[in-house]
Amino acid sequence: MTDTLEKSVETADGVAVSAAPKRLFIKTYGCQMNVYDSERMADVLRPLGYATTDAPEGADFVILNTCHIRERAAEKVYSELGKLKQMRERKLARGDGGMTIAVAGCVAQAEGEEIMKRQPAVDLVVGPQAYHQLPELLTRTARARGERIGADFAPHEKFDALTPDMIRARGGDGPTAFLTVQEGCDKFCTFCVVPYTRGAEWSRPAAAVLAEARALADRGVREVTLLGQNVNAYDGEGPDGKPWTLARLAYALAEIPGLDRIRYTTSHANDMSDDLIAAHADLDALMPYLHLPVQAGSDRVLRLMNRKHGRQKYIDLIARIREARSDMAIAGDFIVGFPGETDRDFEDTLDLVRQVTYAGAFSFVYSPRPGTPAATMPGQIEEKVGLERLQRLQALLFEQQTAFNAAQAGKTLNVLFEKKGRYAGQAIGRSPYLQAVHVEAADHLLGRIVPVEIISGAQNSLNGRLASANPI
C-alpha cells in the first residue's frame, strides 16, 4: 500500500522541512512484533512526508527491520545491505538523488557498532526501543552531524510517540491488526537472545492500549492480535493505578464497539494464569486458538533450556484450558537437536505431541546464538541428526494439523474475510482457529464476519461456501 502527504512540518529539533512526498521502503524480518514495529516506523515518518512503497528501487529511505533469533540472521542483513549499497550508487549515478539506509530491530540492538564499522553505507542504526527517534536521527543524518545510533532501552518512549490520530490517518489496511502490549522477557531461556535484544519485561499502560484499540476499531479493524515476547506476563498499569492482567485487558477490549475478535501471542506456560483461562470460557471475542510454546517434551531438556516448567505441568495446563474451552485449538513451538538431547529425549517430545495434539506448530533444528548459554553447552548435536529428528517431528505435526483441518468439514464457522483470493470473486478469511478459509463469490464481504459452511480441509487451509447472506 502506498500513500502520500504534501505539507510543511517541523522535525524533532524544530527545523521546518519540506514534506514533498518521499518514498519509504521497510523490509521486515521475523516475528509479528517486528511487523508491528515496522508499521509504527511508517507512522512516525509519515508527518515528514514519507509514503510507503513496495520495493526498495527508487526509495529515498530504506529500513531493514531485523530479527536476531535465527542463526545467520546478521549475515542475511549484511548481504541485503550490500545490495542496497549498489542500488544507492546506481541511483546517484542516474541523478535520482540519494538513499538513506537504516538498520533497525534486534540485530541493530545486538550489533549496532559492528554494523556501522562493517558496512559504512549504513546511515542509521536504531534498536527496537528507539524507533520514535527516527525523525530526529534522520534529520541529523541529512545534515551530516550528530549521533547516528539510537539503541538505548526506553520502551515507553516509543509508544508515547504514537497517537490515535496517527493510527486513524494510516488508512485502511484491512480488518485485522497487530497491537503490541508487552515487550521484553525475564525468562532467560538458554537458547534465546530476546532478553538481551529487547530488554526486561515491560507492559504498556492499559489506557494506552485501549486508546490504540479504539482508534483501530474506528478505522474498521474487527480483530486485534495482542503482541508480546511474553504477552501473558502482561501487567500494565490500569486506570486505578494498579496492574492489570492480560485477562482483565481482554475483558476491557471486548467492550469496544466494532472490535469482535481478540487473539494474543506469544505466551509462556508459566504465565498462563487462572483468570486468563477463565476469560477464554467467558469471552466470545477471545478466539479459541492459543499459541503456547513448549519447545521440548523431555524434562531433562526443558531444564537445560531453563524453561521453568516440566512436561507434566504443560500437559496438565493444556487439559485445564480445554476444560474451560472445549474447542480450543493449540499451537506450539519446538526445538530439536538441543545440546545434549538424546534419542530418548526426542522420543519424549514426540510422545508429548501425541498427547496434546496440535492444530499448528513452528519447529526448528537448534541453532546457536552467540552470547546465549546454550551456544557453549557441551553435547552439541550434529546437524544431520537434528535434521532427521526435525523431519520426524514435522511429519507428526503436519499429520495432526491436516487432521484438525479435515475435521472442520461439515461445520459452520464464522469467517472474517480479509482479502481477495487468487480467482475472480474469491475471498480469503480466517476461521476462529486462525485457519485460512477460501470461499467463492465472497469478495463483496471483505471486512465482514460471515457464517461459512466448510466443505473440506487440507493441510494449510479450508474450503467453504457461504452459509448465510447476512454478515455479522
Automatic annotation (TrEMBL):
Listed PANTHER family: CDK5 REGULATORY SUBUNIT-ASSOCIATED PROTEIN 1, MITOCHONDRIAL TRNA METHYLTHIOTRANSFERASE CDK5RAP1
Gene3D superfamilies, A to Z = Methylthiotransferase, N-terminal domain, tm_1862 like domain
> What Pfam family is a match for this entry?
Radical_SAM
> What CDD domains does its record include?
Radical_SAM
Q: What Enzyme Commission number does this protein have? A: 2.8.4.3
Q: Which gene encodes it?
A: miaB
- This chain's protein is named tRNA-2-methylthio-N(6)-dimethylallyladenosine synthase
Q: Does the keyword Cell division apply?
A: no
Principal place of residence: cytoplasm
| Domain Radical SAM core residues, every copy | 171-403
Species of origin reads Brevundimonas pondensis
Which reaction is catalysed here? Answer: N(6)-dimethylallyladenosine(37) in tRNA + (sulfur carrier)-SH + AH2 + 2 S-adenosyl-L-methionine = 2-methylsulfanyl-N(6)-dimethylallyladenosine(37) in tRNA + (sulfur carrier)-H + 5'-deoxyadenosine + L-methionine + A + S-adenosyl-L-homocysteine + 2 H(+)
